Every structure is written in structure tokens, then in C-alpha cells.
């Protein structure tokens, strides 16, 4: 917030001028609020911060007041028509007459207005709020809450959904995003592109939105089309992930040696997802048998999840070169066998995810992402024509078109998997 101190022509004393938030200018009209600060400039300067603070508090209350939803509640409670109720609540919030008239026109059908030679000139957020008032569709947060309860999803998935839908909601101007139309969906896609978002990320966002629209349509909450269907059509095809440069990998290995970053080597020789090895407990490393156990668990309220849930639980051999690294960089693993996680402090409860801090600093340290190590391992194995069922046993990669029953029939033995894993240089 900004303020200045000055005088007004024809008025005595000194005044404090404070800039009003843009969102509140339509109902008050002026860009600046003037309050008398004192008889002298020094007195006005002394009172300026107090005056600004009082105005900020007042504006915060005004911003929280929602005359649109208040009108809906008043209409439902008293039987007043929606336009009468909205006129009442806008008056109570001191909207100017011309602003009230403009917003009230937005309640009516556009085609009917056109026949009368009228037009409702609304901002996107005003139109969104009026659509929200007229609609019985729930806010996006209710959709997320319901899907979380029904589908038992990981917190990281929920946070991902919330981030995307919150951004959409803020752009649209209403939490009831289900009132959007296809044109607005296309405009938001363009908005994401203009922000510099990559095509594959935009496609990911559109896929999430489409999934929620399908969910609401299936429930009967949305009776319109899925406005996100077909929105991916004109996006450029995502570029294939580039193979990890051998020189970059070599430099990273040298640095990982210097830093004694044992988790780097888990990624380098096992090809696992970072959650798979960053959430390991001491008891999960059986150094005598040369295997590690990937299991879900709860420790002191911290949840250990796996991407494939129970399907991700398995025992896999430890690469001989990784065993050597563990002996040098994590010697405690040779003597500890308790249930405490190896890296208990690197956990983010909101995401229910392990290794978050380590992964965030990984690219800064090595010049590529931790997931690139997984891609490297998978690529090397595919170049050696490794059977996909062996690849599944090692990395957890799914085998397309294979049922769980068939996967159980063809599962290789631990010794067979170890033999294949050792082919990785």
C-alpha cells in the first residue's frame, strides 16, 4: 500500500492520501482516499501510518464481504427475487447506482437483453460471480474433498489438484469453476501459454480439469459438455526427454563422491523413484542378503507411500556397486536394523513425501533432475533388450497391456533380477 502527505486547495491542514485497492474501486469510484492527518505536515506524517493501517483493516473487511452470495442467501431465506436481493446487498456495500444497474443486468439472459438493445458490460470475475449466484454447482474444493474421500489418493496428488484448480479459480474470478464455458476454457489455455508454461505442462493441466469435469458430469452435477475435451488438440507435441549427457553424468558422479551423497547412487544404480529410496528405513536395507524392501508404513505420523500403492511393495536386489557405496557413505546401515527412517527430517507432511528437500537441491548441485537418473537406468536396460518384466521388478515400471494376474505368473526370481541388474554399468 502507498500513501502521500499533502494539502488540498481551499482546505486547511494536511491530509494523508492512500491508494485504494483496484478490486474495491468500482463500488467507491475513487482511486485515492483522503483523510485529514493534522494541522501541520509533521503531525500528518506522524499519523499517516495509523491512518493507513485503519484503512487497510476496513478494506480487508470490505474485500471479505461478498454481496453476490449474500444476495443468494437473502433470496433463499426471504423469497425475494434474486435481482431485488442483489440490489439490496449492493446498496448495503455502497455500490454507486450506475454500478448496481450494470451488475443487475448481468443476471438476465444475454439474448433477452439484446432484443431490448441492452448489454451487460461485465468483467470476467463479475460475470463469474453472477453465474455462481445463479448456479447450484459446488466450489471446486468440494469436488477435491469428495474425490479424496472416495479414491484414497496420496496427499501429493491432492496438493497438485488444489494448486491447478486454485489458479483456474483465481483467473476466472469464482471458486465455482463449473460455470465456465468452452470459450473461457480456451482462453485459460492461452493464458497458461502466455505465462510461458511448456506444452506438456499445459496438457497436464487440461487433463486434470477434464478429469474433474467428467467426474461432475457423471455425478449429474454438471449437465453441460466437458469444456476441456479436445483442448489439447492444437498443442505442440511434447519433446521427448533427452538422454542424459555422459559427460554431465560423469561430472555429477565426481561431485556425488565428494559430497558423499549416497542417495545419488541409489538413483544411479537402482533406477527407482526418489520416494522409493528416500523413504527407506534402516530395517529395509538387508546388507547381508544384499536386498532392499520397499514397503508402505507409518512412522510418528509420517506416511510412507508408494506410487503404485500395494503394487509398489516388493523386495529387490541391491546393485553390487551400490553396496560398496553404502559401506563407505552409509556404514550405519551395516549395524542398524530398526524401524526409523534413514532420512527422517527430509519429509514434507503436506505432500506425505520423502526426499523433498534433497530433490529440490539436486538440479542445482548436478545440473539435471533426480528423475533423470531413473530415466538413465531404464534407457540403459532397454538398450540391452532387457525383458520388460525384469524392468518392472527392478524399477517398478508398468508393463503395458499386462494384468496383475499375468504379471504374477511371469515374475522373475530374485536371483534372476540380480543377474540382470548387474548388467548396469
Describe the structure.
This protein has 425 residues and is mostly helical. The protein folds into 4 domains: 62 residues, no CATH class; 68 residues, no CATH class; 80 residues; 176 residues, hpI Integrase, Chain A (Orthogonal Bundle). It is 53% helix and 9% strand. Helix 3 runs parallel beside helix 7. It starts with a strand and ends with a helix. About 2% of the residues have low confidence.
Key phrases:
single chain, 425 residues, mainly alpha, 4 domains, three-stranded antiparallel β-sheet, 10 strands, elongated
Strand line-up across the major sheet = 1-2-3
Low-pLDDT regions: 399-403, 405-409
As a whole number of angstroms, the C-alpha radius of gyration is: 30 Å
Structural class: mainly alpha
Query: What is the CATH domain class of the largest domain?
Result: Mainly Alpha
Secondary-structure element string: EEHEHHHHHHHHHHHHHEEEEEHEEHHHHH
- Total discrete domains: 4
Indicate the multimeric state. Answer: single chain
Q: What is the helix content?
A: 40-55%
From the spread of the alpha carbons, the general shape counts as elongated
Beta-strand fraction estimate: 5-15%
Sketch the major β-sheet.
Answer: 3 strands, antiparallel
Amino acid at each position: 500500500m502507498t500513501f502521500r502527505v499533502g494539502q488540498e486547495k481551499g482546505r486547511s491542514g494536511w491530509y494523508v492520501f492512500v491508494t485504494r485497492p483496484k478490486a474495491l474501486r468500482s463500488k467507491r469510484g475513487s482511486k485515492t482516499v483522503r483523510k485529514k492527518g493534522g494541522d501541520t505536515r509533521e503531525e500528518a506524517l506522524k499519523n499517516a501510518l495509523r491512518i493507513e493501517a485503519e484503512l487497510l483493516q476496513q478494506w480487508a473487511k470490505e474485500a471479505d464481504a461478498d454481496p453476490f452470495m449474500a444476495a443468494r442467501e437473502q433470496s433463499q431465506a426471504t423469497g425475494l427475487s434474486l435481482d431485488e436481493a442483489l440490489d439490496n446487498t449492493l446498496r448495503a456495500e455502497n455500490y454507486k447506482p450506475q454500478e448496481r444497474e450494470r451488475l443487475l443486468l448481468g443476471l438476465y439472459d444475454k439474448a433477452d437483453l439484446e432484443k431490448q438493445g441492452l448489454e451487460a458490460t461485465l468483467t470476467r470475475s463479475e460475470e463469474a460471480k453472477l453465474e455462481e449466484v445463479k448456479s447450484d454447482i459446488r466450489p471446486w474444493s468440494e469436488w477435491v474433498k469428495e474425490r479424496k474421500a472416495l479414491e484414497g489418493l496420496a496427499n501429493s496428488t491432492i496438493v497438485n489438484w488444489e494448486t491447478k484448480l486454485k489458479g483456474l479459480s483465481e483467473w476466472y474470478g469464482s471458486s465455482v469453476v463449473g460455470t465456465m464455458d468452452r470459450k473461457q476454457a480456451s482462453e485459460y489455455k492461452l493464458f497458461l501459454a502466455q505465462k510461458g508454461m511448456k506444452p506438456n505442462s499445459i496438457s497436464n493441466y487440461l487433463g486434470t480439469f477434464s478429469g474433474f469435469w467428467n467426474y461432475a458430469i457423471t455425478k449429474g452435477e454438471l449437465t453441460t459438455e466437458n469444456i476441456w475435451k479436445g483442448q489439447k488438440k492444437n498443442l505442440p507435441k511434447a519433446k521427448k526427454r533427452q538422454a542424459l549427457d555422459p559427460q554431465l553424468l560423469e561430472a555429477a558422479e565426481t561431485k556425488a563422491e565428494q559430497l558423499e551423497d549416497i542417495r545419488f547412487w541409489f538413483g544411479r544404480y537402482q533406477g527407482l523413484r526418489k520416494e522409493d529410496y528416500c523413504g527407506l528405513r534402516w530395517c529395509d536395507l538387508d546388507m547381508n542378503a544384499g536386498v532392499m524392501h520397499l514397503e508402505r508404513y507409518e512412522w510418528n505420523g509420517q506416511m510412507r507411500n508408494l506410487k503404485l500403492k500395494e503394487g509398489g511393495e516388493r523386495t529387490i536386489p541391491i546393485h553390487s556397486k551400490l553396496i560398496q557405496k553404502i559401506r563407505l557413505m552409509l556404514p550405519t546401515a551395516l549395524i542398524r536394523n530398526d524401524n526409523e527412517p534413514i532420512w527422517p527430517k527430509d519429509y514434507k507432511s503436506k505432500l506425505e513425501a520423502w526426499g523433498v528437500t534433497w530433490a529440490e537441491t539436486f538440479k542445482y548441485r548436478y545440473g539435471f533432475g533426480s528423475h533423470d537418473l531413473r530415466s538413465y537406468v531404464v534407457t540403459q536396460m532397454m538398450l540391452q533388450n532387457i525383458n520388460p518384466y525384469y524392468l518392472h521388478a527392478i524399477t517398478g515400471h508398468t508393463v503395458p497391456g499386462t494384468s496383475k494376474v499375468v504379471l504374477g505368473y511371469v515374475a522373475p526370481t530374485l536371483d534372476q533380477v540380480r543377474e540382470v541388474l548387474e548388467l548396469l554399468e
